[in-house]
Design goal:
Length: 303
């Protein structure tokens, strides 16, 4: 609305509206001239996509690890947006007056898994509201070091950590940019943004167990949230190059092949496996699942 106002596209009784706080009165006529969608400068690229679902309003894709979601100064091409511009082509009716896909959430470059993207303003607005309300269902699968178990007194003593019935670890902190490294997020308890992650153990590997397959689900969706929270508990993700995911594993606990597979894994072992939301136009409840990618399956088979 602010963008339309800046373009002089909104008028009340024929007078162009310039005051963002102005409110129409009963009996007044409000005119909104929505301009035709224009092409954006971001180039469309014919990049293969794993499309899980698509209709006139939205598209759900299974993003591979290594793909950036949105163009940025360091990654102007080969992003998900570049691929969607080509794939969707004329089915984009415009977001904010531009022919572009509406990105309502993101996952990190080296995290794989499900993303929903809007094709028009109505879908974009409806999906964005659901993410703001934290009503979207999001489950991740991850491999972490150690075992985040309620029976471990060390974990129970970590600030911001408590356990719910069913041995579910709940992590509640605030998150903000790191003071000295702007590419990282830091755990805070004063300031920053509220963040809640829950974690359930799916499987354990090693004798004694030294690596766990876990399921994580988000009550909030902050940058790097799962990676930061797991590192905060002392159970950083396998392969995570930013939050200390490299550790020395004893050959007494795992086979040499398993140890080598962990050392060779070159990204955070994190996959957005489940995505559920209400269709922003039809109101239908939708839920999608994506199997683990090949590299994580291979790592699990070695473990």
């Amino acid at each position: 609305m602010v963008q339309l106002m800046a373009k002089g596209a909104i008028a009340i009784d024929g007078q162009t509206l310039t005051d963002t706080k102005a409110k129409p009165q009963a009996g007044q006529t409000v005119t909104i001239n929505v301009p035709d969608a224009t092409d954006v400068e971001t180039v469309a690229q014919d990049i293969p996509l794993d499309v899980i679902y698509e209709d006139d309003d939205l598209i759900v894709v299974n993003k591979p690890a290594g793909m950036v979601v949105h163009p940025a100064p360091g990654s102007p091409r080969d992003t998900l947006v570049n691929a969607l511009l080509h794939h969707c082509a004329d089915s984009l009716s415009g977001i904010g007056g531009e022919k572009r896909p509406g990105i309502v959430h993101r996952i990190d470059k080296d995290t794989s898994g499900l993303l929903v993207v809007a094709k028009n303003d109505r879908a974009h607005h409806g999906l964005a509201q659901q993410f703001e309300r934290h009503s979207v269902e999001r489950y991740y699968r991850a491999l972490c070091f150690g075992v985040p178990d309620a029976n471990d007194p060390r974990v129970r003593g970590v600030r911001g950590v408590n356990f719910e019935p069913g041995n579910i670890m709940k992590i509640t902190t605030h998150l903000a940019r790191h003071k000295t490294d702007r590419q990282r997020q830091a755990v805070l308890f004063d300031g920053g943004r509220h963040a809640v992650t829950r974690v359930r153990i799916v499987d354990r590997f090693g004798t004694p167990p030294v690596v766990s397959l876990v399921e994580c689900w988000l009550e909030t969706g902050r940058t790097h949230q799962i990676r930061v929270h797991m590192a905060h508990t002392g159970h950083g993700l396998v392969g995570d190059p930013v939050y200390g995911g490299r550790r020395k594993i004893s050959h007494k606990s795992l086979t040499p092949n398993a140890v080598q597979a962990i050392q060779d894994f070159d990204r955070q072992a994190l996959h957005a496996a489940v995505l559920g939301f209400e269709h922003p136009v039809s109101g239908e409840m939708m839920r999608f699942e994506a199997d683990l990618p090949t590299d994580m399956i291979t790592l699990l088979s070695n473990l």
